[in-house]
Specification:
There is one protein chain. With 470 residues, this protein is mainly alpha-helical. 61% of the residues lie in helices and 4% in strands. The chain has 20 helices and six strands. The strands form three sheets. Strands 1-2 form a two-stranded antiparallel sheet. Strand 1 and strand 2 form a beta hairpin. The N terminus is likely disordered. The protein binds arginine. Arginine binds next to helix 7.
């Protein structure tokens, strides 16, 4: 089926005799999704027209009419009164066509010294910069709420794990502060990506620049970019700014997913380490006893979606010759979905961490099982009795076996029983077999003693206020 009256023919199909087929229109159109960057498109156009007027490329009268018309369109879109048309392909042509309806012939001057290629590169870059800024602020909030939980739990003792087996007792606050470090690096990656993407493609025109006397520094300044991009071919043809944002988001999602996984484990009756309120859990339709950590499971599950967005866009870009190819229109849905998912998961995690109540005695009891102070015992044999560590390790292993035979903890063995394994052991040993002693003794830099953890939390409280963009 051909549609010879297609509206887009009025704007750009001057040399085409016939209309597009319906399927061509369907595969070609991006208005279904790129209407999300309408505000950024209008901002880009206003900056462009302001500069065109300052450079005397268009008249003041035309520039004012164009700017006023664009503001009317902005309001129509914000109020949900704008009729988006698939025939007009994308947001750029929808806005321009409406501008013609509103102000007539002057609208045709907006596209002077510009192409949709630098227009879309600019609008999309502005959109990703906004998303990157929202993510920076959410990661900052997440760090804040984790630091507060950690500060309240410096002396809450839990088992520390390796291979998901009880290894050494640690402070619950210390465990949470480990995530603060990860999210701190994520914040750093997002700040880096923001700084690198903050250059203006506008004025690159189709690919080669323009013969009009434009001022690219001026449009860059008007749009809050640090500077114009240096190479016009690069400006219209790379989407590495979106890939870098999605890459930082993917790394952060991996951290969110690990934390979510721990929330799922801690919530299970087998662990019973934390409680989450009704705000962050669901019930089962058949099993009344259940309180399921669905939000955490969904954060874990949605991680794949953000990773998928990253890989989708990397794959779109990987074999494109310079400069623009229509493949690049596929950048938007991936990035929009990645950003929506990332932000939702950050919000859910901020909510869960704020809501989470540690079950202190359950954690403490679990920390005492599995001979979690065996390393402390080996350290004592080495440090106090002067044994080589390998020998101490061996003797500790024999004491663990003995305790297992008696179904006892290491601190429940009598001195006589221990001396049967090694006669040099004295009553001083009992000072290191307790779980609290173990945690308190680990005062090395970055260690788990409540005092170290309190210091880490205090340092982060100061640092988080200084985490500012750029
Ligand atoms: N809708 C297009 C996109 O998203 C706009 C750029 C069109 N440029 C072109 N030469 N066809 O990339």
């Amino acid at each position: 089926m051909r549609d010879e009256t297609s509206k887009s023919s009025g704007l750009i199909r001057g040399r085409f005799g016939e209309g597009m087929s319906e399927v061509m229109e369907q595969i070609n159109a991006s208005i279904g999704f790129d209407q999300r960057m309408a505000m950024q498109d209008i901002d880009g156009s206003i900056a462009h027209v302001t500069m065109l007027c300052e450079q005397k490329i268009i008249s003041e009268e035309d520039a004012t009419a164009i700017k006023d018309g664009l503001e009317v369109i902005r309001t129509e879109i914000t109020d949900g009164k704008f009729a988006f048309s698939v025939e007009l392909e994308d947001i750029h042509m929808n806005v321009e066509s409406r501008l013609h309806e509103l102000i007539g012939a002057a609208a045709g001057r907006l596209h002077t010294a510009r192409s949709r290629n630098d227009q879309v590169a600019t609008g999309f870059r502005l959109w990703v910069r906004d998303a990157n800024d929202r993510a920076l602020s959410l990661v900052q909030q997440l760090i804040e709420v984790l630091v507060e939980q950690a500060a309240e739990n410096t002396a809450t003792i839990m088992p520390g794990y390796t291979h998901l087996q009880s290894a050494q007792p640690v402070s619950f606050g210390h465990h949470l502060m480990a995530y603060v470090e990860m999210f701190g690096r994520d914040h750093g990656r997002l700040s880096d990506s923001r700084a690198r993407m903050n250059e203006s493609p506008l004025g690159a025109a189709a690919l080669a620049g323009t013969s009009f006397p434009i001022d690219r520094e001026r449009t860059a300044e008007l749009l809050g970019f640090a500077r114009p991009m240096r190479n016009s071919l690069d400006a219209v043809s790379d989407r590495d700014f979106a890939i870098e944002y999605l890459s930082a988001a993917s790394m952060c999602m991996t951290h969110l997913s690990r934390l979510a996984e721990e929330i799922v484990l801690w919530m299970s009756p087998q662990f019973g380490f934390i409680e989450l309120s009704d705000a962050w859990t669901t019930g089962s339709s058949i099993m009344p006893q259940k309180r399921n950590p669905d939000a955490a499971e969904l954060v874990r599950g949605k991680t794949g979606r953000v990773h998928g967005s990253l890989f989708g866009l990397l794959t779109v870009m990987k074999a494109l010759p310079l400069t623009f190819s229509k493949d690049m229109q596929e950048d938007k849905e991936r990035t929009f979905d990645g950003a929506d998912t990332f932000e939702l998961c950050l919000k859910a995690t901020i909510g869960m961490i704020g809501d989470m109540k540690p079950r202190v005695s359950e954690m403490r009891a679990a920390a005492g099982t599995g001979h979690a102070t065996a390393t402390d015992l080996a350290d004592w044999l080495t440090g106090v009795l002067g044994m080589p560590f390998r020998e101490a390790h061996h003797i500790t292993g024999r004491l663990v076996r003995l305790a297992d035979e008696w179904g006892a903890g290491l601190d429940e063995l009598s001195l006589e029983q221990m001396r049967e394994v090694d006669a040099r052991i004295n009553e001083g040993v009992f000072a290191v077999l307790g779980v609290e002693d173990s945690v308190t003794s680990r005062r090395s830099l970055g260690g788990t003693s409540p005092e170290c953890v309190a210091r880490q939390a205090a340092e982060w409280r100061d640092r988080v206020g200084q985490l500012r963009v750029e």
